[in-house]
Design goal:
mainly beta; nine-stranded mixed β-sheet; 48% strand; seven-stranded antiparallel β-sheet
Amino acid sequence: MKEKRLIWIFLIVAQFAFSQIRGVVKDSISGEPISYVNISVENETVGTTSEADGSFSLDIKDEKVLIFSALGFETKKLSSKSEVILLKPKVFELKEVVIEQPKFKKEIEIGNFNKPLGYHISGDLEWSNAKFFKYETTYEQTKFVKKIKITTRSKVNNAKFKIRIFSVNKEGSPEDDLLYEDIIVTVKKGKRKNIIDISNFKLVFPEEGLFIAYEVLKIESNKYEFKYTENKSKKLIKKIYYAPDFECNLVEEQNTYHNRFGKWIKLQRWHNNEIGSKEKYNNKVFEPAINLILTN
């Protein structure tokens, strides 16, 4: 009998009456709409993502403070009554760099891609998971990050998600974006091994290591209905989730952080009393099935 795969699910139960707010996010200088902005409610686990045209809608109770965050723009807080949100482009301090052209003659692959165990299913929470890659001296001959490999399973055709690459701070958690451009990935329906070529960025693997993160986009075209049976009541529950699902592993070493509305938290280890876990999962931790291909 095949072993059932672990599914990591996040749920929020609606307990209050909500009203829908609508708005659009734009560049304060050009006036152009900003796609795929993270929009969250301050001090709450509620949020959404702006659509390709910058528009968004959100169901909330009473007036709230919304937080708007997008790569390349300054984060902004505004009342939920605001209908047009203008984000100011961020000014980046240029560092002295040595320009070097990759040769692309040698490649190595690093990660834990070939031992999948289950899937992360994205629910009502704005959600991002970041996997840490430690620098090894053996990478000196292949110091450029050429490609990112990640497996998805999608019930929606042409589902989209975002890839981000972060530096590592002194505490060992994700800090600054290493790229100042969004990487939006579109995936086909079903299970896919996606290979994202980022060689044009000429990103050198930092000696402090780096984090590769996937970011869920809470947009209409990613929505799908997920059905499951509640353990205690045995009732059939229907929830809205966001494609795609991401393949994951359970591993011994803690290398992953998750982000809930701007706060990076180290993922906790699984215990026997948790839903869906088994004795063999005890004291292990979830990790996205992501690999990197390095080149010279």
